[in-house]
Amino acid sequence: MSDFWIILTGTLVAATSGILGCFLVLRKMSLVGDAISHSVLPGIAIAFMVGGSRDSLLMMIGAAVLGLITVFLIQLLQQGGLQSDASIGIVFTALFAIGVILISRNAANIDLDLDCVLFGEIAYVQWDILIINGYNMGPAAVWFLGITLFIVLLVIGLFYKQFKLCAFDPALAAALGIPVALFHYLLMGLVSLSTVASFESVGAILVVGMLIVPASTAYLLTDRLSRMLLYSVIIGALSSAGGYYFAKWLDASIAGSMITVAGLLFLLAFLFSPLHGLVARYNKRRRMKSMTV
Which CATH number fits domain 2-284: 2.40.50.140, 3.90.110.10, 3.90.20.10, 1.10.3470.10? Predict the structure, then answer.
């Protein structure tokens, strides 16, 4: 039964991250998830200083607030003329450094379990049980991630056309009266929510990998957004299941193995994708060359 809960948890993370990752890849903002995962550290530290305890809910609220602040600062720097990658790098390194200072000054002797925040341990999700009125409802992480996935599906489903147009042509979306800035912050808020929701169960590193790799793989396989979203979720689910059994075989990190499998699937798509694969492009160039001879 433990295998089922671990794979289900990984699949929920992969589905949530894969859907959001498609829009991040199209908008060339794939590293926003990485920025959020690092810059929430001061939020965790401030939550501990305010509450005086390692209460998970309080720390997650603090992390979520800092995630939204991160998105706002990145957008502010971009509007000021700075390149996207530079804005992301400046904001997340600065906030991460502030978090390190806050912890070293105010919580140096307290175990805040930051390794769990960054790397997580998905193997332990089965032991953190949600109890409601004396009934065992199963792992709390599954419920929390399931609710997060439901929120993401609901928002994307309600505003699919707006998100699609903003991703492909923001200028046209603005001309049609769509509030581009609002949907940008809404998307970034969902990314922040999905990142924070996965902290204690799988860690931020797995979320960052699932935000980028499955969506990038799906991008190589299709030119239609609807199919890209579906392929990204399927690839993420395959990476979760395959990575778990790969880790079990090697007796290695489960999260690391999941991302490794996702990377291997990306490599296969990069080489053999019928649309954008290296082999397909080589064959196309060779056919064109033979036609000109």
Answer: 1.10.3470.10
